[in-house]
Amino acid sequence: MDTQIVLPESQVAIHSPRLFCIGRNYAAHAAEMKSPMPEIPMVFLKPSTALIRNNGVVELPLQSDEVHHEVELVVVIGKKGKHINESQAADYVEGYAVGLDMTARDIQAKAKKKGHPWSVAKGFDTFAPLGDFVPKSAVNDPQNLGIKLLINGVTRQSGNTRDMHFSVHELIAYCSTIFTLLPGDLIYTGTPEGVGPVHDGDKLEASIEGMPSLSVTARR
Ligand code: MG
After folding, report:
1. Ligand 1 centroid – CA 2 distance (Å)
2. Distance from the CA of 100 to the center of ligand 1, in angstroms?
3. Using one digit for the tens of pLDDT, what is the confidence trace for 51-93?
4. Where are the domains of the chain?
5. How much distance in Å is there from the Cα of 101 to the middle of ligand 1?
6. Segment 14-24, tens digit of pLDDT
7. Pair 216, 100: CB distance under 8 Å
8. How far is the centre of ligand 1, averaged over its atoms, from the C-alpha of 4 (Å)?
9. How confident is the model at residue 16, as a pLDDT?
C-alpha cells in the first residue's frame, strides 16, 4: 500500500508559509543599531508559527526583557520561481501587506556578539504579525509608500519604502538565487528607523499607505 501523502504545492504554502526576512535594509535603521550596511541582502527566516493576523496578540516571551517593534512592507509571492530576473520580479508578486518583525533585542544582541544565528531572537510564536493583503495592482510603486507604526496612538516609526537599500524586486531576485520561491511565501523587507521596546498592554498600529492597517496588542 502506498502511504505517501503528497500535498499540492499551493496547499503546502497556504498551511505553512515561509517567512523570509531582510535585516538592515534601511540605512538609518542600521545606523541606529550601530551596524554596518550589508553588501548583499541579509536574509533570515521565521517559522510560520510566528504569524498572527489583525487584532491578534503578541506574546512577550518570559525569556526576553526587551522586545522591539519593526514595521515592514511584506511581499506575498504568487508564483513559483528560481533565479528570477530583477526585471521580471514583479510577475512573481501576488500582493502586499504591512507586517511587524518583532524582535527580542536583548537575545539578538547576545547572539550578535557570539556570531550566533537570530532564529531565537526573531522566531518566537506571534513574532510576525501580518495585516490583510492588497493585490499588487493596488500598489502603484512599492518603492514609494509611507510606512508607520503607532504605539498607544503615539507615532514611533515613520518612514518611506523609497529608503530601502535593496528594492522589493532586487530582494525577490536575490532570494530566488538561494530558495525556490513558492506561492504564499512572504518576504518581510526590513524596517525604517525608530525601533523601540513594546510593553505589556501596548496597542500597536502598523500602516502602509493604501493597505489595511494592522492592530495587535502586546501581552506578557
Ligand atoms: Mg526587521
Report:
1. 43
2. 8
3. 999 999 999 999 999 999 999 999 999 999 999 999 999 999 9
4. 4-8+25-219
5. 5
6. 557 899 999 99
7. yes
8. 38
9. 79
